[in-house]
Design a protein that fits this description.
The chain has a two-stranded antiparallel sheet. It is mainly alpha-helical and about 140 residues long. Helices cover about 80% and strands about 5% of the residues. The protein contains four helices and two strands, in the order ααααββ. Helix 1 packs antiparallel against helix 2 (about 55-80) and helix 3 crosses helix 4 (about 95-125).
């Protein structure tokens, strides 16, 4: 194989990977946008209940929250993968501290999720398969 063939094959592999990732990002952001739209609908419902209960200030705040979530939902449903990445890069250039804080919060949320899910697995007994007795150096033992 010549150098140009290797280079062309590598470029093709990179383009295929970008295309695949772009499709995945499109699909996931659309799903996330649909979930956000559902949350906005629920917030509107809560707002209506607050108004019926005579708690207008709470309903106003809930309406503002629903509007913000609806805006995010529309953006996520309409944005393609490349646009989303470009917008994130632009935001990172304009407000790097905001992006760093967001990454920190996302990391914290992920660590909490992992900690919670691992403790659930431990309690469910999947961790109990280990150390329940056996043989060590030829001697049988029970725990």
């Amino acid at each position: 194989m010549q150098t140009s063939e290797v280079r062309d094959a590598a470029a093709q592999a990179v383009n295929q990977s970008k295309s695949f990732l772009s499709r995945q990002v499109d699909q996931r952001t659309t799903e996330l946008g649909d979930r956000a739209a559902t949350i906005a609908e629920e917030l509107r419902h809560v707002s209506g209940q607050l108004r019926q209960s005579g708690i207008a200030p709470g309903a106003d705040y809930t309406d503002r929250g629903a509007e913000a979530v609806e805006n995010v939902a529309r953006y996520l449903q309409g944005a393609d993968g490349e646009q989303l990445i470009e917008d994130l890069e632009s935001l990172a250039r304009r407000q790097p501290w905001m992006v760093a804080a967001g990454a920190l919060l996302a990391g914290f949320a992920a660590s909490r999720f992992l900690k919670t899910s691992s403790s659930r697995r431990f309690r469910s007994g999947s961790a109990g398969r280990y150390g329940t007795g056996g043989t060590a150096y030829g001697y049988d033992y029970e725990t």
